[in-house]
Amino acid sequence: MEKADAQMLLIFGASGDLTTRKLIPALYELYVRNLLPENFVILGAARTVLTDNEFRRKQCDGILTSQKELSAKDARLSLFLKRVYYMGFDTQNTDEYETLKNRVEELQNLYSLPDSIVFYMATPPEMYEVIPLGLQKCGLAYTSDGFRRIVVEKPFGTDIKSAKHLTRLLESIFDEHDIYRIDHYLGKETVQNILVLRFSNGIFEPLWNRNYIDHVEIVSSETLGIGNRGGYYESSGALRDMVQNHLLQLMAFIAMEPPVAFDPESIRDEIAKVFKSLHHYTPEEMQEQIVRGQYTAGTIAGESVQGYRDEKNVSGDSVRETYVAMKIELDNWRWAGTPFYIYTGKRLSEKKTEIIIHFKSTPQQLFVGQCSGSSCNQLIIRVQPNESIALRFGLKIPGSGFEVRQVSMDFLYSSLSDKKLPDAYERLLLDVMLGDSTLYSRADAQEASWDFIDPIIKNWVKRGKDGLAFYASGSDPEEVDRLMPHNKRCNRCNDIIK
What we know:
Blueprint: E1 7-12, H1 17-32, E2 40-46, H2 52-66, H3 75-81, E3 84-88, H4 97-111, E4 117-121, H5 127-138, E5 148-152, H6 160-171, E6 179-181, H7 189-199, E7 213-221, H8 230-235, H9 237-255, H10 264-276, H11 283-289, E8 290-296, E9 298-300, E10 303-305, E11 323-328, E12 340-345, E13 352-359, E14 377-384, E15 388-396, E16 404-412, H12 424-434, H13 443-463, E17 468-472, E18 496-497
Helix pairs in contact: 1-2, 1-12, 6-13, 9-10, 9-13, 10-13
């Protein structure tokens, strides 16, 4: 992989959990793999008062937690942490950003760094406007001989109006090509492999359309509840938290047309086209083709768990959804009439994220035991856990006669290399340091996805508790059965020869 040029990474919200659990361990892994620049500095900034050494000890603990086999005395770890600094100041007060500018210039001079900086917003969303304005006010947002790039975590807005407002504000300070809207799902190896699977193999791409694919399922389920995120989840919910970004992005990778070239803008052009072709629901279709649910008390892995309304910082009469199932259609030539089913939720029976391509069945069933329905041949792309791809099809059982059983041809992504699969943040952090925006969302795609989601949110607000399904933890809402007709389901799909 390409190595980035010398630069500084400035992380806002650096005293928080995201920095310690994900960002710094990912940067250390890049350092060990010799992918960080030869000359770099990582500067953390937040309101919490910490010295450089206190911050380093905290980040050291985070790295050791993520890499159990690593010792705190490892020489490489010590050398890496020497390039990690911290500055505590009131990030909400734009007048104090002048002191941040002085610290940046001091470190640049100390290490003879060029004037190239990546700003990473590991902060609550309410800071996404304040920090850029502070950088603009003190002059840190501009350079004449380096670069300025800004990484914004989700959620990028809460509706179409706020997303557009945030985009306009950021574009008044940074160029669009320097704004990186991060979605860590797109950093996963298997998600990136979708593009290679489709566009490098002649056996798949000719079948990748409404003529041969009956429907597509995209599933992201979790066994965990909301934990201590009650305050956030009450204002977000599964639709904003998972569907608007992660799952629609996965759908776009499956549904997009071949790009004219493998470069960031060509790929992002095709993703934007998918979002612009999303069929917008009528109010009647919303009731028929969308299920929203909320988990109640139940049992998972033999352990009793409480319901959503009993979680910390959750209202006792909350109507916030923790589960969403949707039948989505695309109004374009390739996919007309081929539905995409999206399912996501908390406190379900299994933790997994996968995409299942259901190919159409043969027009006749000639053999005993042959699968019927439209799900007999499946391509299963497992994003997590155990990133893998499986192809399911029918074969004759050994012996006399022509009895058919379903078999599975499995590929584990880790088998391509004996090296540890890189974490999603490793890939995405390296990309932004290299200036590669392929796996980052563009403004027009963000706005098109919000344009699709917004009417659903407004409809739910209007309906209140009407239509909210309740499901016991460890199970799915029964209402989801109405989304997919039974004649689309395989009668022997689970009858697989291991």
